[in-house]
Write a structure and sequence with these properties.
With 210 residues, the chain is α/β, with parallel strands linked by helices. It is 29% helix and 23% strand. A hairpin with a 2-residue loop joins strand 1 (2-5) and strand 2 (8-15). The relative contact order is 0.16.
Length: 210
């Protein structure tokens, strides 16, 4: 499927919620210039986990990836792509609240949009590359926000991310996966369990309970 955007279209995939839908989610992929696509394992597994607990979940390719039109926009123009995906979900399911999240580069773009968009009720960030990107915009955030980080992430391990987030004093829950690197290889089941728990019975469930 494709979603309309100002530069043309975004290639996308929608995974329906298992059982009764409680919300909708957009999950963004890692860096377009380093092989990141909507089929990246952490993105696919996250969408699967959210679907399991009642979210219609949309993955899409940023501009210039796959059959999406446009070209790489240094993480700035990609914010328009995220908003177009949110628009599509809001039009398709106007009665359901929105969640936005992403992995690596995708987390930086998605979290930035999620902070600014009032319609977004909760956030998900995976593999924050704190050695490459600034996340200070999360300071004081009041929306439930789950961050999952590999303890051995080469772009910012658990201790580095914990230190960075501790200074922001927002409604942020950090889970560190022992032994995991940036891509969560070998740790996808734990990643999915953390996502399911947070958005079904944890802090992230609150905005989505009817």
């Amino acid at each position: 499927m494709h979603i309309p955007v100002s530069h043309g279209q975004l290639e996308a995939n929608l995974r329906d919620a298992e059982g009764e839908a409680r919300g909708t989610a957009v999950i963004c992929h890692p860096h377009p210039l380093h092989g990141g696509t909507m089929h990246s394992k952490a993105v696919f597994r996250s969408a699967q986990a959210l679907s399991d607990v009642g979210f219609h979940t949309l993955r899409f390719n940023f501009r210039g990836v796959g059959t999406s039109t446009g070209s790489y926009g240094e993480g700035v123009d990609e914010q328009e792509d995220v908003r177009a995906a949110l628009d599509w979900l809001e039009d398709a399911y106007p009665e359901l609240p929105l969640l936005v999240g992403g992995f690596s580069f995708g987390s930086r773009v998605a979290l930035r949009v999620g902070v600014e968009e009032e319609r977004v009720r909760a956030l998900l960030g995976l593999g924050l590359a704190v050695s490459l990107f600034d996340y200070d915009f999360l300071g004081g955030i009041t929306k439930p926000t789950l961050i999952v980080q590999g303890e051995e992430d080469e772009f910012g391990g658990g201790p580095e991310v914990a230190a960075a987030l501790s200074e922001l004093k927002g409604d942020i829950t950090l889970h560190r996966i022992a032994g995991s690197g940036h891509f969560f290889d070998g740790h996808f089941e734990e990643l999915q369990d953390l996502i399911r728990d947070y958005f079904s019975t944890g802090p992230g469930a609150v905005p989505f309970v009817p």
